[in-house]
Amino acid sequence: xxxxxxxxxxxxxRPALQSLRGLSSPVRRVDVLHATxxxxxxxxxxxxxxxxxxxxxxxxxxxxxxxxxxxxxxxVCAELAAGTGAxxxxxxxxxxxxxxxxxxxxxxxxxxGALLDGDxxxxxxxxxxxxxxxxxxxxxxxxxxxxxxELCARFFSLQHMSVGLMAFEVAxxxxxxxxxRTFWQQGIEAPALAEVITSGNxxxxxxxxxxxxxxxxxxxxxxxxxxSNAQLAAASLRRAAKIGRCMPRLGPQAQGIAEExxxxxxxxxxxxxxxxxxxxxxxxxxxxxxxxxxxxLDELSIGDxxxxxxxxxxxxxxxxxxxxxxxxxxxxxxxxxxxxxxxDAARLGWHLSVQWLHKASRAYVWQRPGWRAAAEEALAxxxxxxxxxx
Length: 390
Fold this sequence. Notes:
Layout: H1 10-18, E1 27-37, E2 51-59, E3 63-71, H2 74-81, E4 91-93, E5 98-102, H3 112-115, E6 120-126, E7 130-135, E8 138-143, H4 147-162, E9 168-169, E10 173-177, E11 182-186, H5 193-196, H6 202-216, H7 229-246, H8 251-262, E12 274-276, E13 285-288, E14 291-294, E15 301-303, H9 306-314, H10 321-338, H11 345-366, H12 371-383
Parallel strand pairs: 9-14
Antiparallel strand pairs: 1-2, 2-3, 3-5, 4-5, 6-7, 7-8, 8-11, 10-11, 12-15, 13-14
């Protein structure tokens, strides 16, 4: 199967998955849960994975099952299927050069089998990287590496801040278990911000978000790696080159945007370096008793606070375009009032271009339905970044 687009096509994959061992009963449905696709190889002889896809398969006899597949050259598939890689050995479907692991088997998360018992459910899953589990009122995040230890420290630090005047609340951290590389915390049941926001309460909710963000940007001690705007500009040039290899028709447009970004990097002398969330967007927030609950501190970094504002705007999930513009504009305006010394409209526009270009490159990587149109739209927004606020 040389056309990599087919691996994220449920209809095309259904007959192929039917031939896996243990799926003798008819496959009723195939859903793509997650996909990661690499840019075309500069080296045709590369042994790297071409595309990795996580499927949910429904059969008459077994119900739902999660399968994780990776496409490699045939010789690499043969080696992995023979057990020469990290256990467990996967199953190889030769006709499509794809190897498969059955959940909870995972080459990067061998602890999953021990963590999942009859009372534990899977909430989120990124194969080979991390998983979020729920056991009653408790939540666990388990990782490939030791990220959970620092994540636990971050939650303890921000929980202490949230007891005071900070508008954000965080779930109560419990402990980090080094033996399973798992961070445990108390769950918080509250509706998602995206579910409750309306044109009537938008200004008040975005004022809370701005206050919480302003407090986070003043937090000490700071966690995570430092990244400068110059580093973001360099990354934009790399992403544009990648877009050119993946989507040649969009290459010149992406290159022009990246060169504009690199040519107007905000001056380093006055560049703020504060605690930033690093992946701030509406889906990270829930509403409880007049406060916003902040989730997912995995990407905490030290950098420009306006990166968080730009991230919120570019990743806004609201289907109502008018409400989305209202929410984004309200957050920006409220933040500018909260932290005028950190705010600069021109710098925000620069970060918006960076974020839109990043979103265009991610459209190819994640391979969600309609990704080509999504990439085109993101590049169009990168050329006029503040249009979403008006």
